[in-house]
Structures are given as structure tokens and as C-alpha cells.
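Sample entry (154 residues):
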Amino acid sequence: MPDHTKDRAPSHEKDRAPNQRPRSALGQLKALLPRLPRRFDITEDHILSILIARRGRKAVFGANLFSEPAWDALLELYAAMLGGRRISLEDVARELDIPQSTMARWIDVMSDRNLVETESDTTEPSRLWLSLTPDGYAKMKQLADHWGAAFLSI
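Predicted structure, serialized as C-alpha cells:
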């Protein structure tokens, strides 16, 4: 009886030939990781590209299928902080293409959860500046670090 064990894939990743690709997805990921840099810093451009991709869904599927104003606002505020920019309630509402009153309600919710803080403009009291709280920034950074690890594994 012939020995067919040579035709089978190695049962353990360590048993595979050096130039052979691991069969399992986890094995492929593990093989890839040592060759990658240990850290991937997310920039304002990365966050803006996520926002652009999210807005692309609107063009394809319509305006109301993927409505997440709070999430999009957090992304806008995180991108602004990474870029050293100030952003107002009016700016965020315009970028998200939603009424200012709707955005204001979401800002209240996020403020209650200590994610967003507001500051009135000293020269134009009707303008409200928005920013992430230290806790909001830390949470967005933590999430971005997860994304960075995922980007590195691709």
C-alpha cells in the first residue's frame, strides 16, 4: 500500500516547508505579522478616508439606509483633532448633511456620555465649537489602534 502522507498538508504550521504558504487563515496571518512594523499610526487622512468610504455608501444605497450621525460626528471630531483643526456644530452638520438641530441632539447625547465637549465662540455666541473630551479622544484612539493592528495584518 503506497504512503500518501507526503501528499497531505502538514498538520502543524511548523511542519510546513519554508516557502509553502500556511493553509489556515490564522496561520497565514501569523506568518505575515513578523514581517510587518510593530505600530501603525492612524492619521487624519486615514479617518477622512473612512468618512469618504462611508459617504460612498450613501451614493450607492441611498441616504437613509446607513444613518449613524453620532458615529460620523465622532469620526469628524477625531479627524479634526488629529489635524489640529477646530470644528463647529454647523460644520459637522453640513459635513454629515443633517439638520443642525439633529446634530445638536446627538451632541447632547455624546456630551452626557463624556465623549464630546462644547465651547461657545467668544465673538459669535451662536457658533458652538465641538471637540472630543479627553475620554472621547482616548476611546477613539483605542479604536484607531485596533484598526491599525487590523491594517497591519492585511
